[in-house]
Amino acid sequence: MSSLITELLQLMGYALCEDRAGRRFALLYDPPGWFQEVWGHQIAGNLLTLVDRSPFLDAFLSEAKEHWNSNAQGPLASGVWVEQIPGGREIPLEARAWQIDGKRILSIHSPQESFQEQSRVLQTARDSVLVHERLLKEIQKKEILLHCIIHDLSQPLAAIKGCFDVLGGETLSAASKRLIELGSQQSERQDAMIREVLQAFAMDIDSAMGAGEAGAPAPNILACAEETVAAFAPLFRSHGARIRLDPRIDRSPHWNVTGEKSRLMRIFANLVENALRHAPKGSVVTIRLEDDAGSVKASVDDAGPGLPKEFKADEAFALFSKGKEGGGKAGLGLYFCRITVERWGGSIGCESLPQRGARFWFRLPRVARSEPVSAITAPAAAQTHSRPHERLAILLVDDDPAILELNEILIEREGYEVTSASSGAEALRAFAKRRFDVVFLDEEMPGMSGVEVAKRIRAAEPPNGKRQIIFAITGNSAKEDQARLLASGFDACFSKPFRPEELFKAAARFSLGTAAQQSATLAEGSAGAESSLLARLGGDAKLLRSITRTFLNDYPAKLHNIKQAIARKNAPALASAAHAMKGAVAIFGADDAVQSAIELQQMGREGNLAKAAATFRKLDESLATLNAKLREYAPPAKRNPSGSARGKHAARKSRHRARPGPRR
Amino acid sequence: MLQKKICMLGSFAVGKTSLVRRYVESIYSDTYHTTVGVKIDKKLVQVGPQEVNLVLWDLYGEDEFQKMRWSYVKGASGYLLVADGTRRATFAKALALEEGVRQAVGSLPFIFVLNKADLAPSWEIDAAMESQLVDKGWDVMRSSAKTGENVDAAFRKLTEKMLGA
Question: Which fold has domain A3-110?
């Protein structure tokens, strides 16, 4: 070898050696410095033993010998490995086996610079992937938390503000009226603050996800389904099952839907994981996509035992809902699916398949390929019911009895005809019997949500018939919530607490009769103290008594549910029962009871019931005090003769005795 | 003295290098340094009357940036299949690697290590997923390179399996 080439190879950091007998190698020239550091003490004359120092090279030489024996063209590369030298320094190395002029040559070099560059790039890339994974998890948690905050904080605050309105109309001293005015102002302030915080929270999430911005691309649901199948295939194989995409899916049309890709992938992942928990060995889980009248319906079908007979589909998607067998974790996955799909104007559900297995599905609006996600607009108020000069017929739906009663009275006082319903199912039954000028729906109700009720009403409307006016009453007042509700079929949205004057304005906007318009004008012109609700009620003390009786009737059962949940150590049930109690007692400003209920709800959510019994006792005491005060305000009526469960419970617990109040 | 080659397999950032460092040097660092290429460590252990020199091949974690080179597994007597309990995706990756080993070199003794037990509240791999592995007859251990939980035990159990003890 010429000295020039030797020098060049040395400068490039290469060591060259030739294979000799006995796993020894002859150095072809003086090797670079790093070589001395690694193998210096293995060199005798110009012969050296490489393998004793390096198990990696030992393994590679076995491959190299096969390569040499095969007379293959070109080199065989070892890939990079790292040798540590005394002092702890690490030297990256790469070997190549060559066949040149019948000689077996081994080249070794230390790719220090490219190794460092590769390390830097990989470190950055993997750090980014880890951050992204963590972000996705945090976002799922935050979205659920956001949803809960909106519901849990807005609901009782709405009732508190309603009560201030009611009390403001009572015949009270000037000082008392001033106090009520202050309380009302502070409630308004707190409500505004909650909404500001939530708005900022929602914007934070959306900016992190790159969603909700104008121009964000609509995700391709078929591509998401394909990625899901690819990602989950090994997991299914390990469980002796299989996952596939329905081969009959028509790939020719575009499959772009409303939503955001990473969250859509999370929905698929949650549904597929749920299916895997129930998929028997040897079975196949299939993802299907169907065109469904302007929407895409995606289904995940398993061949498991199907849904239990008593199973309610809505409960599967409730917060903290977990299957009894092969259960999930925190009961958040399907809940996340529901709130996300509904936020995008879609729907979600599950059912047993006719033969065997279960289907979990969701439906999302299809969008044009180039249409940005945010292009959801309110449907035009087309043809409306218009009955000028008549009393408007209003269907009012809310699951909270106190809020329902309050709103009912407020609206009735304005001369409207009100029919009340305390659940989605009850609302649909009322709607089946007659038509209403306006339907008011609480968005969040157990069992059937307001969104679902609205969709069913819309689905039953004849194509060219008159459009039913449906208004939403919601604690979710962010812009995207409003857009979601309008896209779900509502004509307008009202934030809690509901104010009748808003109804008048909306009714005027929808041309719902002269009477309504006149009322609207009156309401707008009478802003100020005299426009308060109770001024219009004329100081009707019956109203407050009626609300009080409703509470006294209802709360013993709520208290019993809490006690039972603690006795059974059922944390999710405790969270739910305490939540219901919190909303009920907040109406009366019973701070101690509210605080105890909040603590119990928190214990339920965290699954830590260690102090639940003690807190329950505090709640029980507070309620006993409240009971006594309220009974003074709402004189007792006759005992409930029906012997209903609620009545029996009240009878057993004398200090929490329920009082049958006249339900409107 | 026997010499046995053990490979560390798993997705990136599951803690393979940390497990080796905890086992060989009894040290741990919270900082994540990605492994590029192959690093080899040795540890002498006593299993009953038998002294064994374990040669630990810490392989880079496979992902879209670095593909697994199956020739590295040749000559191995067993391996630790490592997943990160807080990252569901690493579970599926570990299963795929187990399948890859079987196809490349046949069945070898291995232990499925669910690492990062110290972060249990954040785990995405639940008991149901874990029990499905146990039902398949696999040895599954929860470990923490950070606290040292089950690290020695996992290597010891694997060594015993390799020796047929």
Answer: Beta-Lactamase (3.30.450)
